[in-house]
Amino acid sequence: MPTALVLWACLAVGCEQNALLADDLSAARTAVAERNWPLAERLLERCLREEQSPDKRWEAWQQLLTVVNSANPEARATLDYLEAMLAEYADDDARVKLVLERMGRLNESLRRYERAADAWSAYIGLAGLTPRETVEGYRHLASVQFSQRRFEAGEETLQQCLALPLRDHDKMMCMYDLADQNMARERWQEVADLCQQILDSGPDKELRGLSGYLLGDALEQLGKGAEALKQFELARDEYPNPSVMDNRIAHLRNKLKKQAK
């Protein structure tokens, strides 16, 4: 039996016969507040062996994750608990969503990309996600796939995001990610088309700056230097790092002057 399932069975039905204190969860809250991690962990594990209330069990799990992360910064120590939580709350989409998101992010940070992809794939299949959550799930899945060098799979994931029945405004970050990946693969015209679509959709200031920079870069690669310079200048004040944009503008101006001679 997998380690996580053994752990879940142990905590859910009880591996010991010790009597439960009157209110382990309250005592654990106090121990957490006092940063007494060993005591808090013992109390929470005992609470999870005996407690039947779903809400109290959920709080105990959350507190236990806090304790484990504080007492042991090694992220792998958290994953066994998250897998146990996933098994326990398999029929509760609202709580599964939170567990899968955390599993996805942790596995990404550990570069365990296959497991991260599994978590994000399950996440985007949940009911009740908001548009923002849906888009973020697709973006994370695509990012993991690109990290695995599964470029076609990553592009397909982003295309699926763009095909969702959501407003263009909600899907703009998927458009940007797709443009960015096309940039890395030197598909200049696709980059230009996607960035123009983003700019036409009324993005926020930061995304307008990022998309303007990519559009300018793509236009320069397409040999349209004057148009590229215009885009860089338009995006300059909205780009997150104006000094980078200033260097790019200065370089392109010098390049165009030399070409004009």
From TrEMBL:
SUPFAM superfamilies: TPR-like. It comes from the Bacteria. This is Tetratricopeptide repeat protein.
